[in-house]
Design goal:
Elements: H1 3-10, E1 14-17, H2 21-27, E2 34-39, H3 45-56, E3 62-68, E4 71-75, E5 78-82, E6 85-91
């Protein structure tokens, strides 16, 4: 089985929906519904599209991918690192919705 097939089978491309105030406003948007997901580091737009179609049975219009860098943080006087994340914005047709649990 190919790399894409293994990842789709295991479901590790779309890791989790990113539920924030801004992402819920985008999902309820006017022209097109936009959903935000955390995705695997090495995933491409085509892999994300295939995983989205397999999981939600809806075809996206377009996909944008954003890499958020890791950041240094200080908590209680100790330095640490907040890990970076890769997120995908999935755009659907106007009036189309998916159910995120």
């Amino acid at each position: 089985m190919s790399k894409i097939g293994n990842q789709l089978k295991n479901g590790i491309i779309l890791m989790a929906p990113r539920i924030t105030e801004k992402s819920t406003d985008l999902a309820e948007g006017g022209k097109s519904a936009t959903y935000v997901f955390e995705v695997a580091k090495g995933s491409t737009k085509t892999e994300i599209k295939q995983a989205f179609i397999a999981k939600y049975k809806a075809k996206p219009v377009k996909i944008n991918v954003i890499n958020l860098p890791s950041k240094t943080v200080v908590r209680r006087g100790k330095k640490g690192v907040k890990s970076g994340v890769r997120k995908a914005l999935v755009f659907l047709k106007a009036g189309e919705k998916i159910e995120i649990m």
